């Protein structure tokens, strides 16, 4: 039982501490040459968005795309409304620009099905994917496209900045930004050794011919698309200069539904991306295990650590470990309750609450993944 405790703790530590340190070393000694960028390359580009009940944000989203600094005659916008029941369809149909194509589907089938249908209409060589509640910086598409001058590049992911509504005017990072910046650092390092696993769903681009239709019940479409491109042998690049902005959910409660569903999608993706576990995937295998797989199973390790320390609590050391864990969970519960009440909590408590809440959502996602038939249909969340 002591071995189970230590194995669980070490696997969590490896994912969050030792893997990042290992990645720094790998990037230092095995970094590839930077991708060449052609600042004059401006091919036709398609921007694709699947939307469901986005009446509050869809007009601003389309206007944002229409005002990008990319040549308007080369920028084509495709938006699919997936069985929306609010005013989304009416708002979309009010746009009469020639470069805006709107498809309003009667039935809510899911994002993957909507993307598959839209992709059948696209002829542009470069496709940019985004969300209905995202805002691009004016030069975002230009920067993404510049990287495709290198024929080895198959996908380019931009950088998503999260902000709170009260900080919108300044586009400031959210208060949980430490974790998000940590993730951005890992993506940058993984990009240097062509080991990226996934893309920022709010802003990424790929060569059209590399798109493989998704299974209709796919949940984490951005991850699966990126992994398909990686499996083709093309390079995945992280372009931090290509910026997008998105408002975070107002509190942990509003965010949990989204995290649970993504948790379901993670375990679905795990079964569909077994090829990336093989050493033949090279550095991507190291990144996939350290950055993704061990993260997805961290809640399981946390449960094992708690149960094993409880069983071994007669020993002083494990009694202390049990106390530390219970104290951490108590702080997380308190911090979460304060968040529900929109009250501020100390930074350390906010981080513990965020970490525990994230893994609790993952665990719920795993339970739902194992206990129900996953459907592609979606429900709108606060983010």
From TrEMBL:
Bilayer-spanning residue ranges: 6-31, 317-336, 348-367
GO function terms (MF aspect): glycosyltransferase activity
Protein's UniProt keywords contain Isomerase: no
InterPro entries: Glyco_trans_2-like (IPR001173), Nucleotide-diphossugar_trans (IPR029044)
Domain of life: Bacteria
Pfam families, per database record: Glycos_transf_2
Alphabetical keyword list: Glycosyltransferase, Membrane, Transferase, Transmembrane, Transmembrane helix
Domain named Glycosyltransferase 2-like: residues: 47-167
PANTHER family: POLY-BETA-1,6-N-ACETYL-D-GLUCOSAMINE SYNTHASE (PTHR43630)
Family affiliation: Belongs to the glycosyltransferase 2 family.
The protein's name in its UniProt record: Glycosyltransferase family 2 protein
Species of provenance: Alginatibacterium sediminis
